[in-house]
Write a structure and sequence with these properties.
It is built from eleven helices and eight strands. It is an alpha/beta fold and 325 residues long. It has an eight-stranded mixed beta sheet, sandwiched between helices. Helix 4 packs antiparallel against helix 6, helix 6 runs antiparallel to helix 7 and helix 6 crosses helix 8. It is globular, with a radius of gyration of 18 Å.
C-alpha cells in the first residue's frame, strides 16, 4: 500500500513516542507521536469505526512541520480490550466516549489547539469533536464525509449500493437467512453479538469484505486481504455495526445541522466523485451548511485515501495549513 503512495505522500517515519491512554471503563488506548515535537499538532482520526490506525497514515503530514498524533479508538488496533474477543462489551464504546477520549488525549499531551484530520467514520468523529470543542480546533481536514444519517446507512447496508455491485452484494447477504434480509444491519448485529466464534467470525469477515471490496474505484485485492484477517475483521465489523444500529448516538442529521458551529474554523473536504461507500451527497450537504470549507471533488476516485487523487488532495490540504497557528 505504501509503495503506491511514494511520490505523493511524505516518506515513511517512525514514532518518537508511544503510550497507552487510560480512558475509563477498563479501556486503554494506544497513541503515538511522530514528526517534529515542536511542530503544529494534528490528530488523525481513523475510520470504521473499528479500523484502527496504520503506519502509512503518518505520511499525510510534513514531518518537519507537524507534530503527528495517531491513536486507536476503543476496541480496535492496539487498544484494549479488543472487540474481537468473544466476551467483548461495547456498552462504553460510543461516539461521545470517543469525543471525550480525544479531549483527554489532547490535555494529557499538553496541546492547546490542534488540527483535526478524519476520513469516512473519522470525518463523523471529527465533526462531532469539533462541534463540541471548537475552541480546541485550528483546522479540519475531512475525506469521504459520512454522518450516519438514515439514508446514508440504508444506501450502503440495506441494498442501495447493490445496484452497482450486485455480485459483491450476493456475498454480503449470503450469511443472512432470506426472511431477515429486510433489516440487514439488525440481522448482522445478532450474529456479530453472538459469543460463539463459529457465528461471529464468519459474519465479521463477510461484513468487512463487502466494505473493503467497494472502497476503491478499481478493485484492490491487497486492500481486501489486509482488512479481512479474521480478528481485525471481527473487531471492525462488531464496532461498526454497533455504531450503526445506534445511529452513532446522533439525532437524525445532527452533524450537518450543527455545522454552523464550525464557521470560524478553516476546513477542506476531499471527496471522491465515485465514492460508493459514502456518496458525494453528504459532502455536498455539509459544504452547503459550512460554505467556508473548501470542497475538493476528485473526479477519478472512490472512497479510499490510498487512491492517488485523494492522497494528493489530502496532502495539499495539510501542506496549506502547515504553517498556520
Amino acid at each position: 500500500m505504501s509503495t503506491d503512495l511514494d511520490g505523493i505522500l511524505y516518506p515513511s517515519i517512525e514514532p518518537y513516542e508511544t503510550g497507552m491512554l487510560i480512558a475509563g471503563e477498563g479501556n486503554r488506548l494506544y497513541w503515538e507521536q511522530s514528526g517534529n515535537p515542536d511542530g503544529k499538532p494534528v490528530v488523525f482520526l481513523h475510520g470504521g469505526p473499528g479500523a484502527g490506525t496504520s503506519p502509512w497514515q503518518r505520511r499525510f503530514f510534513d514531518p518537519e512541520r507537524y507534530r503527528i498524533i495517531l491513536f486507536d479508538q476503543r476496541g480496535c488496533g492496539l487498544s484494549t480490550p479488543h472487540a474481537s474477543e468473544p466476551a467483548a462489551d461495547l456498552r462504553h464504546n460510543t461516539t461521545w466516549h470517543l469525543v471525550a477520549d480525544i479531549e483527554l488525549l489532547r490535555r494529557n499531551l499538553g496541546i492547546d489547539r490542534w488540527q483535526v484530520f478524519g476520513g469516512s467514520w473519522g470525518s463523523a468523529l471529527a465533526l462531532a469533536y469539533a462541534e463540541s470543542h471548537p475552541d480546541a480546533v485550528t483546522e479540519i481536514v475531512l475525506r469521504g464525509v459520512f454522518t450516519l444519517r438514515r439514508h446514508e446507512l440504508e444506501w450502503f447496508y440495506e441494498g442501495g449500493a447493490s445496484s452497482i455491485f450486485p455480485d459483491l452484494w450476493e456475498d454480503f447477504i449470503a450469511p443472512i437467512p432470506l426472511l431477515e434480509r429486510s433489516h440487514l444491519i439488525e440481522a448482522y448485529h445478532r450474529r456479530l453479538s453472538d459469543p460463539d466464534p463459529a457465528v461471529h467470525v464468519p459474519a465479521g469477515v463477510a461484513w468487512t469484505t463487502w466494505e473493503a471490496a467497494t472502497l476503491t474505484l478499481l478493485p484492490d485485492a491487497d486492500l481486501v486481504a489486509g482488512m479481512t484477517e479474521p480478528a481485525a475483521a471481527t473487531a471492525f465489523a462488531r464496532i461498526e455495526n454497533h455504531y450503526f444500529v445506534n445511529r452513532g448516538w446522533f439525532d437524525e442529521g445532527q452533524l450537518i445541522a450543527r455545522a454552523p458551529a464550525l464557521r470560524g474554523i478553516p476546513g477542506v473536504i476531499v471527496q471522491g466523485r465515485y465514492d460508493v461507500c459514502t456518496p458525494i451527497m453528504t459532502a455536498w450537504d455539509l459544504h452547503r451548511a459550512w460554505p467556508e470549507a473548501e470542497l475538493v471533488v476528485v473526479p477519478d476516485a472512490g472512497h479510499s485515501a490510498t487512491e492517488p487523487g485523494i492522497a494528493r488532495a489530502l496532502r495539499a490540504a495539510t501542506d496549506h495549513f502547515a504553517d498556520a497557528r
